[in-house]
């Protein structure tokens, strides 16, 4: 079958797969925009941050960075701790991005939890160029986030709104993504390793310091038992 080489075909093929992200990003983007606007910033700043930073949980955290007394070191450290998981995302996608040329830089930048999830659970249509399809997914997802941020910032400016509890939207989205991946996949070893490592490190290091040790633990375990995980993956996918 001849592949459709145009970007328009790639975006048309990618859009249906990104609809769940569209619905999620609109809501949590709106929540971020509202929280950001409550700090007194114009909606254009919310849009600019979503374009240049584009890190959902990192942006939620950044809202609190504008409070007096927060040092540059605290900003750097907390941002690193919240987004350290993206290092491992990037490592796992090196082979897939290696032939994308200059676009590889944007693909690395745009690798959010939701986009990363789509890359793994979505089968690229056979008649569409894979590199253009992946780029379309990443661009669409970021556009959804930017749109949600702007809508939220404008709504927060025009309408009085109590943002108490709004930040839970990000946690809820993570739970939905995990549930979807669990139901879609037959091999649950990586998920169980992740949950077990997070629980043990949470008990040992506490709620404020368990993310980095958890990631290191997960990486070491999966690398050590890579063959076992891959064999299990083959067995579960066998007809």
UniProtKB/TrEMBL annotation:
Chief location category: membrane
InterPro entries cross-referenced by the UniProt entry: Brnchd-chn_aa_trnsp_permease
Protein localization: Cell membrane
Alphabetized UniProt keyword annotations: Cell membrane, Membrane, Transmembrane, Transmembrane helix, Transport
Signal peptide: none
Pfam family, one: AzlC
Membrane topology (UniProt): Multi-pass membrane protein
Membrane-crossing residue ranges in chain numbering: 14-36, 43-60, 66-84, 133-154, 203-223
Classification via PANTHER family: INNER MEMBRANE PROTEIN YGAZ (PTHR34979:SF1)
Similarity section: Belongs to the AzlC family.
Protein's name in the database: AzlC family ABC transporter permease
